[in-house]
Amino acid sequence: GYSINLTNPINKNIEYFYKLLQDKKLYINFEEKQSVVNTVHNGQDKFIIEALWSGIQGTKVSELINLKAKDIDFEKKRVRISDERVKGVRVISFPQDETSFFDTARLAIGEKIYKKNNGKEIKTVDSSIIPDTLEIEKAPFVLRSTITNTKGGNIKAGQMSHYTVYNRIDMIRGLEEFEDYVDALTTKNIVRSGMIHMALRI
Questions:
Q1: Does residue 59 have a pLDDT over 60?
Q2: DSSP 3-state assignment of 81?
Q3: How far apart are CA 148 and CA 27, in angstroms?
Q4: If we measure between CA atoms, which residue out of 63, 122, 43, 11 comes closest to residue 71?
Q5: Which letter does DSSP use for residue 122 in this model?
Q6: Which of 21, 64, 106, 177 has its CA 20 to 30 A from that of 144?
């Protein structure tokens, strides 16, 4: 007969589930996501990972780059997101015990200086050190461009472009610490990893 135990059986061995799901590592679990966030230096980059994990993406990450500080309700744990390409607005509600998303959001909103190369010094052939920091523009967006970014297309003043988001993720993928996560650290697979995590919590 059928079991009357309503507990998701997968939760008993989550690691086995992840191994069963993928021949190569395409997805990361919650602990691995936290490891990535903790290793990444800049608040802006931390938030990119957290937001994608939480399902904030949109067409060419438009939901992510359109997100403004005022769209985040820290008290009620809700986020209002919009995708201008499809002219849609939706609200994501988080569990009241969620902290990681909102902690990184605060870091990203308050960040004024961006440290290149994940905070590591960049030395040239002649051993001179290239300036490793960039000033982040003042703007209402959570993710903001640096003052050296070239503006183009329909990007609003101070808004990070989708190209920069992709470049930041490529930078994170290239870090030695994440050699095993290369295939998992893409916008699509970070979003899917978050979806799998949510499904396992049911």
A1: yes
A2: strand
A3: 33
A4: 63
A5: E
A6: 177
Task: Specify the DSSP class assigned to residue 177.
Answer: G
Residue-level length of the chain: 202
Average confidence (pLDDT) over 83-112: 90
Q: How far is CA 70 from the centre of its chain?
A: 19
Please compute the mean of the pLDDT values over residues 153-160 and round it to a whole number. Answer: 75
pTM of this prediction?
0.82
Alpha-carbon gap, residue 17 to 9, rounded angstroms: 10
80, amino acid identity: R
> Please, are residues 111 and 136 in contact by the beta-carbon 8 Å criterion?
yes
Sign of CA dihedral 156, 50, 96, 35: negative
Please answer whether residues 43 and 69 qualify as being in contact, where contact means their C-beta atoms are separated by less than 8 angstroms: no
| Alpha-carbon span 29 to 115, nearest angstrom | 27
